[in-house]
Batch of 4 targets.
Target 1
Amino acid sequence: MEMNNKPIGVFDSGIGGLTVAREIMEQLPQESIVYFGDTARVPYGSKSRETVTRFAFEGLNFLLSQDVKMVVVACNTVSATCLEELKKYSPVPVLGVIEPGARAAASGTYTGTVGVIGTERTIKSQAYVKAIHDINRDINIYSKACPLFVPLVEEGWLDNEAAFYTARTYLTPLKKEGIDTLVLACTHYPLLKPTLQAVMGENVRLVDSAYETAKEVSRMLKVMKLERYEAAPSVYRYFVSDDPTKFIEVGERFLQRPIDPINVIDPEVPCQGLKSKGRKSE
Amino acid sequence: MEMNNKPIGVFDSGIGGLTVAREIMEQLPQESIVYFGDTARVPYGSKSRETVTRFAFEGLNFLLSQDVKMVVVACNTVSATCLEELKKYSPVPVLGVIEPGARAAASGTYTGTVGVIGTERTIKSQAYVKAIHDINRDINIYSKACPLFVPLVEEGWLDNEAAFYTARTYLTPLKKEGIDTLVLACTHYPLLKPTLQAVMGENVRLVDSAYETAKEVSRMLKVMKLERYEAAPSVYRYFVSDDPTKFIEVGERFLQRPIDPINVIDPEVPCQGLKSKGRKSE
């Protein structure tokens, strides 16, 4: 297949990266996508650097085996942990979610005081702090790990009492610092936007990494002249490492389109045969 | 080593099984323990039957390589998913946490109406329902998956507003059914006992699987004449599959004793060399 018409690979630890896939579908409807969510080993956010790095290389290798023209690491934890190593290793461009989010935050703040929320691993890595300071060293950054947000989103508790209490508890210290911009440094968090906005107040701008990343994908494809031009409609394929039932159920509600075909693969096994679960063929 | 003096193996998906280890330490202080927590792949509770079964066999094989006289599957998800397969395969006795909990519930209920709470996978498996009905078919059982309890416990939010709201939301339907006994079918849940008791009221008895399982271990060792009689003090060793920092931090607070020595192993690799992290030697 000619390079331009190859799909974009999107890698995530689970279902959260679908926020990034959805933004690519909306902003670049002509592009095809291969999505891999490592649902057997999700979440990555509380695991060690070594373990996350190993899982990430397995995910990258799987997407490369699917002949993609670019890999988007939709997982903040992976982007924060080992993006440079993945870039060095990969024969195709690799794009993370941190630089786009950091750029939007740095250019959007008036007061020069920015908040960053994410998983334990993302926050501990200080990756957003480094990325924002690479752009503007004078910005004050206040970070906060919010480990309960992902399970709340997965339970569908987006705006009930527990969600508000949790958001208030995590965000009040950031609010007291007077931030005017809050980076949602985890792909699950956009689903909590109304609650987070209500807790932070209307004057704080929420930066959605998924949206910013899709914009960056668009820019990169243009610069590299890698845009798809085939007349045939774009194709979306999905791969997971665990039984796809829950992924399909939550994901279809989320993407507002069928998740089909979907296949189950074992990322620990290189060049494996696929156990097909394409529903059309069942 | 003579069979009696070999350690008891305790297997869990992560840190939760330490509630079972602690009960064994308290009830059977003369017994040695080898604990394995699969912290790189935790949690199991939301994953598929196939994936959980594969992880469980890898954990069992690791403990067998440590020359244990018995394996306690402290993980409710594993006990609910594939205990019979593990029992058939293992050359030493394998004990799960479900039968002991089910027996305590069946013998403790006056009204014949029992509640069971656990992870999605444990509840979906209906393992407690089957185990309780095997003892007494007339007991009415109401089950409820409580996926937010584990992240709450891991965040240390045991009795704040979010914990109470979550407990009320999950437990109110069970309370309305008039249960007089509530089985805590997840090793993390005993830490929430005061909150759960407050929500359910003093007349509902909470069945703690960890406590009941340790009692069953004691009974089994007596029956099989496998009690340790060596004069030397018992030895506790710990193995995890991810960086042990967080496990040590949370686990020591939890067990009230040092978690040492601890080693990191990769359960996907059979008969591997151990990457030693024993702190004494560092």
Target 2
Amino acid sequence: MTKAARPRTDPDEVREKILEVAEGQFRRIGYQKTTVADIADELGMSAANVYRFFQSKSAINQCICARLLDGAIELAWRHVRAEGDPAERLEALLVAMHRHNRETLIQERRMHDMVAAAVSEHWENVKTYKERLNTIIEGLIREGVDAGVFAADDARIAADCVLGCFGMLLHPVMIEQCIDDDLDTKARHMARFVVRALKA
Amino acid sequence: MTKAARPRTDPDEVREKILEVAEGQFRRIGYQKTTVADIADELGMSAANVYRFFQSKSAINQCICARLLDGAIELAWRHVRAEGDPAERLEALLVAMHRHNRETLIQERRMHDMVAAAVSEHWENVKTYKERLNTIIEGLIREGVDAGVFAADDARIAADCVLGCFGMLLHPVMIEQCIDDDLDTKARHMARFVVRALKA
């Protein structure tokens, strides 16, 4: 009798599957209430096996949140790389970033403790994300300056100001505090206002 | 023997004294750790007597925070009523409001739970404060439009945008999260940037 070849599992695929199941549980049950054992259970594996891939629940959350932030960065790039007037693209980018954060991070109430935990446990990730976003916007401002649409003595400081102005509309905790307001209208007004500050 | 005239105490003075002692304790010991009995003790009166003036510790805190907010509104009025270019006054007003909030609400670490409790227990106060500040800034924008310095289709929406842009630099929780950054430089850059969005 020949030994049946045991299907090889790709470690990357296992990691991916763990993240997917964990994200589902964090969203449904909440980050604080989910345990690594719960995640392992749904995957039909042992908790010890999950720990071979991730040191802790916090490490799993870090990866999930990093992917959410990567999604936001991708969105920003799409607007930067599009055709057309840099002013219009910056305005659209800001509104889209607000909507992305409002919908991904806040819409589902249970997400809140996951995001809050990620912000407090992995502040470095958030800082890196802000740096990247800042640099992407700086690039778009430079493009606008070259095209004669924008005027800015220092594109880096200008990008800082743009993001600073949109802080309340991008920060999950602040979005949640104002979730009953008409944030979409506010975001559109604010984006137009902020872009006006850059106009040549 | 004539009965010694008992000094009459003015209820307003007692209220004032209670608020003063309570604010001192909230700042030194923290809001959560201070009890009405502690406040009464320092005043040499019974807790029951304190309760004749304020229904609860939360009611005391509401009055203290309302006074802090009134102080901020006074500061805003001073800039609005000053002489000179409306653009320069708006810029100075924004930087001054940031400094006021940073110094009054945040500098003393123990203040934080007092402010956080006030924000969550008395959200209506904060909303009223924002409304007043918004209207004061709207007035300054209208003045700038009349003077030909500012251009704004709708001064109310413009004031909303100005305050929205400065939200991160005015909100105590957000200031605290970034307290290690060079917030003063940031506030100056942001104020100049925001005023630029209004320029005619």
Target 3
Amino acid sequence: MSSFPTSFDGVSVATKANVYFDGKVISHSLILADGRKKSLGVIFPGEFHFGTAAPEVMEITAGSCEVVLDGTTETLAVSAGSSFDVPGDSGFTIRVTGEHCEYICSFGTP
Amino acid sequence: MSSFPTSFDGVSVATKANVYFDGKVISHSLILADGRKKSLGVIFPGEFHFGTAAPEVMEITAGSCEVVLDGTTETLAVSAGSSFDVPGDSGFTIRVTGEHCEYICSFGTP
């Protein structure tokens, strides 16, 4: 169980939201003072595939999800307070059932 | 037609989203460096009533909506690039049809 920050301070936040899959996945993009990029998002019930360019760390901050990384067959059960890593130039399938799931996505260097 | 910023810089953003009406309305809360509070949100099709504590300025940044302020009967048609003001201790009904609508909500002093 990892903890996550309740806020990010001194950041630049894009006013326009990122809306994917007819609004089933929504995020807002942040750039931290040191240049690192993150997004804060909400995923509603469904199953969605995302590709990655940069590697990503996905911290789940509310709800839970099941994840299958591209090129693997194992299903990872991830709940609030936990995270999973996704390599760059890859992707993952995320499944949310029941309640919506919230995340902090942190982008690494491609 | 007013313009709106593409980003807010030097802000504090809450990691947890505000999710209303079963996810039909989602926002993230910001606090600007000078202490002013804003939220960035997305509204999916439907009709929703919000109460206000502080007065609010709602700038529509994508899509469009129809608004009826509490205590009035006039329907305001508001599209991207326009805004509407809501008094404090009041409220408004907002209706979105078709595409989702995005907004910047700026909270004033109660």
Target 4
Amino acid sequence: MSETPDSPAETGLRAPSGARDMASRAAELDAADPLAHTRDRFVLDAAPDHASGDASVYLDGNSLGALPRAVAGRVADVIAREWGELRIRSWTESGWWTAPERVGDKIAPLIGAAPGRVVVGDSTSVNLFKAVVGGVRMAGKGCTEILVDATTFPTDGYIARSAARMTGLAVRPVEPARIADEVTERTALALVNHVDYRTGRLNDLPGITHALHSAGALAVWDLCHSAGALPVGLDAHHVDLAVGCTYKYLNGGPGAPAYLYIRESLQERFESPLPGWNSHTDPFAMDPAYAPAEGIARGRVGTPDILSLLALEAALEAWDGVSIEAVRTKSLALTDFFLECVSAYVPPGRARSVTPYDHQRRGSQVSLECPRAGEVMDELIRRGVVGDFRRPDVLRFGFTPLYTSFADAERAAWVLGEVLGALPEVGSGTAGTGG
Amino acid sequence: MSETPDSPAETGLRAPSGARDMASRAAELDAADPLAHTRDRFVLDAAPDHASGDASVYLDGNSLGALPRAVAGRVADVIAREWGELRIRSWTESGWWTAPERVGDKIAPLIGAAPGRVVVGDSTSVNLFKAVVGGVRMAGKGCTEILVDATTFPTDGYIARSAARMTGLAVRPVEPARIADEVTERTALALVNHVDYRTGRLNDLPGITHALHSAGALAVWDLCHSAGALPVGLDAHHVDLAVGCTYKYLNGGPGAPAYLYIRESLQERFESPLPGWNSHTDPFAMDPAYAPAEGIARGRVGTPDILSLLALEAALEAWDGVSIEAVRTKSLALTDFFLECVSAYVPPGRARSVTPYDHQRRGSQVSLECPRAGEVMDELIRRGVVGDFRRPDVLRFGFTPLYTSFADAERAAWVLGEVLGALPEVGSGTAGTGG
């Protein structure tokens, strides 16, 4: 992982590309795109059309992924046949009971995990609690602190503090780049975001994990903004615990269930703070004494939320035959091209990128700082370019390689250039959720 | 609440009703049923037909409620339009963000709560953890123990023990009928099932709550097997905290999100052990410091699971114009009639009820003990009568007044009589989940 600093000044936009026709470049890139065919697996608006001025570009898949075509039919069948006709029999006959592990195994290859290491269910926040408390309980007896990514999406910090309070430890916020220097023999674990939700900075998962292990601490990664956008390599890098959502680059739907990864060698030592009956070794024994299940089922809690879980399972069909490496290649090409288009179309000085230019440190979004960013995003959305706004001054544009085209990137930058070239007098406040 | 003991011997089935034609009685009762019309709000098989021998009777709504007709269309629209077309805009424009409180307010009247006291999301187990830890934190400083219903559905005990471990308290199992005698000034709270999942016994919520309060302890109720089947009266009885699932008598679908009730006067003192970003007073401030929301939103955790939550919202339309008192009246009439039919049809000595005969102590299910109960239930299901089996020897039959008819009850008892009259040589093991 590069040691290049990424202060805003040093990651500023490159010089305009001059007279080159970016729209033609986009068409060429789309024609050569080996993932162009997967766009049809999603429900999207018509492609952007320069001639008509109709721009409908969705660059908010880092908040809520677009709808995969397979979802509607699958959910209709789950409701009408599995629930409506088979009813209770579906817990066995339709595979409902085993869905948390089965869907986990479908996510696993996208994050570099072997089967049996990922279980789906509950929200990201709830899984963070399981991971942090479970991690503390596996850590050495003398540990007194949890390190938390100082730039984290806030829920990670809130949950880490609650877990620390309930296990008698302290929380210390540390910049991800400083973790290797700050970790001590008193550190139980560090909870770190793989990609920063605000800037799109990719943190050094292999390096930070190794540094933590060298000090005897566990590495707990939040994959919300990386899973489905780039290779994660959980098994390869010996990550201990990880959590992630499924509604961003995995396109599982609004608030779709999250997942928990537990390294195979740690599973038998994992003690969940949420030992619901679904994680019992024999749930239907209705045993008053808790005995945890073997393997990743130990990460389950209550009865799985079947409609959402099976919607997610259908959504994951969009990955059939797709390698995460190909996704990463296209992701970098898209964000490179978008930054280039922004340089070409946006008047100098009107916006600057806070996303690292270095490929080694970039996720799959581009975040631009500009004045009156809330109003700017409102206007972009009115003109059909949907990104989102994070206070106080960040425009976020997410690039989902399975369905975002180079034409989308070019069109978005063109509209952004128009809007920033003549800052309109408009209201503020935008929709959005999911970090 | 009656003090009548309910040992199996004293709640045994009544004598056969003689020559009275139970099928005709059922038809009369159905014709006079003021809730007969709500059956059409659900997708069910054809009514049982004695002439054809075709018996399709669903008596497992206490595990998984049948499908309400309103669900499929609503979910299809949520997927195709709200997610597929509006995408991220739906968090505000389609009311996704406020759905946990809005759906909570729709459940509230069914459990005797005013608006603003119920929030929907997460599983029952996760809500139990919030309620027990939150309750302990509101209890007196000198408290050292949590009382847990000794006959509880096991997840309540598992979660209570985890909460106790993490807050430094002990857990003491106590029979519900003994709580008033066992509570002491060192008791932080008691976690009690309103209706016992196995026997269908209704515990004395007003009396136990009052006894706990008299000792300075909080009352935390699990409503999984009572909500939607009988009046609960949370506000009226000054219950402190309550949780429940929505997939039994509320028909929200498999694993549908659960809910948390917090008494109004306690909400500002409630400190959640799961302070996710959705419970922050200003979630989009992305504030590194946690500041809990006012009111019941404080019980939220992560991003709400929209597909399941809105399926539940549609399911709750089945309650339009229905009073929970009318439901209770029919529930008791149904279980009375079923017990009478069982007495008439089942050979003497082949089964005995473990459900209290006293109306004051009966929920909305009938549980019968018999030898080889697993095999018996398998055979019942093969013949179209769907109840469920709980080890080692209990047959459970749930009665959902919104869609169960007296003809269903009569037909189920008739088939049960046939099966118990000639115990078949069949395999064992049945499907089912949800407690």
